[in-house]
């Protein structure tokens, strides 16, 4: 079965958010390789653009997942996006309640979407498009794990922390587009017997 046609309500917010992040990485303050994305919220010139970027990605992601059965992973991803905007990060060396909430929300934002992709691939059946969703889910998961490891004090990945996070976010945008293009082969209420069905091989 051919992929479904992508809706403007999915494509425009996701590409808009990704484009803003790309422009901030190229022209914004800080080092896009070493500095995390949330550091843009600490600069008056880039803070509004950061908020708009996350908001667009959240709107596009919600639109991409419209019609799919809701799950804890979807709710955690959506909630993480909102909390990342509401609670700004803090500068290195500082510890604040807002910064702690931001980091936890960011972890949910980066790690939960692959679970959604895994479920979508399972529902879509053994198709080439479903395998694409699985591959993108694995890419998001791997880069998210590497980004998490980069925060460890002894990790040599710390010098590329910002780059790893940006790759993860761009991969998430691609995964959301792939999810939105997945033919809806199951109704919104899925049978519990489907839980044991695995997604197609990579």
> How many strand units?
0
State the separation between the terminal residues, measured CA to CA. 18 Å
Beta-strand percentage range: under 5%
3D shape: globular
Largest sheet: none
| Helix percentage | 55-70%
Radius of gyration: 17 Å
Uncertain runs:
186-197
Summing up helix and strand content along with how strands pair, one would put the structural category as mainly alpha
Number of helices: 7
Residue-averaged pLDDT: 83
Order of helices and strands: HHHHHHH
Quaternary structure type: single chain
Write up what this structure looks like.
By secondary structure, the protein is mostly helical. 60% of the residues lie in helices and 0% in strands. It contains 7 helices and no strands. The chain has helices at residues 8-27, 47-64, 72-86, 97-111, 113-124, 128-149, 161-180. α1 runs antiparallel to α2 (47-64) and α5 (113-124) packs parallel to α7. Residues 186-197 have low confidence and may be disordered.
What is shown here, in short?
The chain is 60% helix and 0% strand.
Entry keywords:
202 residues; mainly alpha; 60% helix
Question: Layout of SSEs?
Answer:
Elements: H1 8-27, H2 47-64, H3 72-86, H4 97-111, H5 113-124, H6 128-149, H7 161-180
């Amino acid at each position: 079965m051919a992929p479904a046609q992508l809706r403007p309500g999915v494509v425009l917010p996701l590409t808009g958010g990704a484009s803003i992040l790309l422009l901030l990485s190229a022209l914004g303050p800080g080092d896009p390789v070493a500095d995390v994305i949330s550091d843009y919220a600490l600069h008056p010139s880039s803070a509004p653009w950061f908020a708009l970027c996350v908001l667009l990605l959240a709107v596009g992601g919600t639109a991409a997942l419209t019609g799919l059965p809701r799950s804890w992973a979807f709710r955690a991803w959506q909630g993480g996006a909102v909390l990342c905007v509401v609670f700004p990060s803090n500068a290195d060396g500082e510890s604040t309640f807002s910064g702690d909430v931001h980091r936890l929300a960011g972890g949910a934002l980066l790690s939960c979407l692959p679970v959604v992709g895994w479920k979508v691939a399972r529902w879509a059946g053994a198709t080439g498009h479903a395998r694409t969703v699985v591959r993108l889910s694995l890419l998001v998961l791997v880069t998210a794990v590497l980004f998490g490891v980069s925060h460890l004090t002894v990790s040599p990945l710390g010098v590329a922390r910002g780059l790893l996070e940006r790759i993860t976010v761009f991969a998430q945008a691609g995964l959301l587009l792939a999810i939105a293009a997945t033919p809806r082969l199951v109704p919104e209420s899925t049978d519990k017997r489907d839980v044991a069905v695995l997604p197609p091989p990579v």
